Amino acid sequence: MALRRIIKELKDLQRDPPTSCSAGIKLFDLDMFRHTNSNKKKKGNKFKVDFFFPEFLLSCSLACSGPVSDDMFHWQATIMGPSDSPYSGGVFLVTIHFPPDYPFKPPKVAFKTKVFHPNINSNGNICLDILKEQWSPALTVSKVLLSICSLLTDPNPDDPLVPEIAHMCKTDRLRYESTARGWTHKYAMG
């Protein structure tokens, strides 16, 4: 069940990328997907995914997402910092780990790129309700990634993962944005 849903979401991302993506971009070559399951000799699942990173994708909020190597339960996504945020111009890597009982349990999503944000800690963990108690099997990876992009634009300091950054965000917004821009230049632009 989980693998079938994950493959469907990958195909959906390819066919109809989020509005923050340029439509029609070939994110993955799913024609290379091969599922082998023989009664005589079970060989398991084989997957090959080709990645495409055209330059014009850099203007999108969500550049690319998909499996790492041949593991369909482990994806990597690239989120471009939203232009109306202190993360503008940054390229942020995010890992997505699907549990075996997906979509009944949420994926584990974390930033690999360091981010100065009240809802993202130093380990890359993200405080986002839909990744916890508000998860629903009706949600998709596409919706999760769009929610993360939205969180970059509009942090939630009232439900922080890093209270010190949340306090700065509430009491000294200019300093918060300046520090976030500095981290973006240091960790997400080079």
Structure description:
It is a single chain. This protein is of the alpha+beta class and 190 residues long. The protein has a single domain (2-187), classed as Ubiquitin Conjugating Enzyme. 27% of the residues lie in helices and 17% in strands. It has four helices and six strands, in the order αββββββααα. It has helices at residues 2-15, 141-153, 163-171, 173-187, and strands at 34-35, 45-46, 62-68, 71-80, 91-97, 108-111. Mean pLDDT is 80; it is low at 20-62.
Task: Summarize this entry quickly.
The protein is an alpha+beta fold and 190 residues long. It has 4 helices and 6 strands. The chain has helices at 2-15, 141-153, 163-171, 173-187; strands at residues 34-35, 45-46, 62-68, 71-80, 91-97, 108-111.
Biggest sheet, open or closed, and with what strands and sense?
4 strands, antiparallel
Low-pLDDT windows of residues: 20-62
Q: Helical element count?
A: 4
Helicity level: 25-40%
Compute the number of strand runs.
6
* Separation, N- and C-terminal Cα atoms: 39 Å
Oligomer kind: single chain
Notable features of this structure?
two-stranded antiparallel sheet, 4 helices, 190 residues, alpha+beta, 17% strand
How is this fold's topology laid out?
Blueprint lengths: L1 H14 L18 E2 L9 E2 L15 E7 L2 E10 L10 E7 L10 E4 L29 H13 L9 H9 L1 H15 L3
Antiparallel strand pairs: 1-2, 3-4, 4-5, 5-6
Keywords: ATP-binding, Nucleotide-binding, Transferase, Ubl conjugation pathway
Pfam families: UQ_con
Family: Belongs to the ubiquitin-conjugating enzyme family.
